[in-house]
Each structure stands twice: as structure tokens, then as C-alpha cells.
Amino acid sequence: MENDQHEFDDEVFEGHSFDSQNLKSNNYTDCLFDRCTFRGADLSGARFVDCQFRGCDLSNAIIVDASWQGVSFVSTKAMGLDFSTSRSFLFSVSFKGCNLSYTVFSSLSLKGTAFHDCIITEAYFEKSGLMNASFRGSSLAGTLFTGCDLRNANFTDATQYSFLLHENQVKGMKMDSASGVALLTAYGIKID
Description:
Shape: elongated
Number of domains: 2
Largest sheet: 9 strands, parallel
CATH superfamily of the largest domain: E3 ubiquitin-protein ligase SopA
Structural class: mainly beta
CATH class of the largest domain: Mainly Beta
Number of helices: 1
Oligomer: single chain
Helix content: under 10%
């Protein structure tokens, strides 16, 4: 699969190692990647439409100008990816039970994106459109939210998140009461 552009439709890839391979500009439509590794692979310009990554490892893959449309990641490691270098047009992804630590999601429209039950340590969301996004059950230790649209975002059952309310749009944001109290303490507000 190395070399020039390839087209893959309705394919199942099981247990393949694509580590450090050049997969530039390949097109994948309705494909399932099950327990595949892409560590350090070059996916620049690749196009993924209606694909699922299940139990995969994409850590440190290069995804410059990659396209992600209707892509779901389940129990997948995607550490160190910089999604902000991907194409933003029709960007549509979801994550369940994934490790997204050290991942960058800056300046992307992530409206309604699900980040459920994920580990999202020291990730970076700057100027991200996260309206109606859901972080239910995710751990967000050290993750930075700056200049984000978090209106109606759901942080119920999420843990270890912190951000400055005045640096983000937060109207209608949902969270449990303990987390709400923790966010307010950054402003010197004490709740008995």
C-alpha cells in the first residue's frame, strides 16, 4: 500500500501494521480499521469518509491536509495528533473510549462532536467550535480550552477539567455540581 494514491471502498483491515508507512493521498470510504497501527505513518492528504477505527493506534501519525468525514474512533489511541493541520471542510469525527492525550484540536468546528469516556490529557483546544459537544465521562487533566465556543457543551461525569469561564463562551454548558464549584473557585468564589 505504499507509493502513490490508492482508493479503498468498503474494505476491512484487521491487525495491519502501517507504522511509519507513506499512505499519502489514499482515499478510504466505508472502511473498518480493526486493531491496526499507524504509529508515525504519513497520512498527509489522505481522505477518510464514513470509516471506523476500532482498537487502533494512530499515535504521532502525520495528518496534514487529511480529510475526516463521518469518522468514528472507538477504543483507539490517537496521542499527539494535530487535527488542526487536517482539512476543516466537512470535518466530522466522534470518539469513544479513546486516548487523545497531547492532541491538538485548535480552530476546528467540532459542533456536536462526542468525546465519550476518553482520556484527554494535556490536549489543546484553542478557538475551537465545541457547541453541543459532549465530553461525558472523559478525563481532561491539563487540557487547555482557550477562546472556545462551549455553548451547550456537556461535561457531565467528566473529570479533571479546568478552564477560565471568561475566556470561553459557556452559556448553557452542562456539568455536575462538584465540577461547577471547582470552576468557580478559580474566581475566588466560595460555596458552602
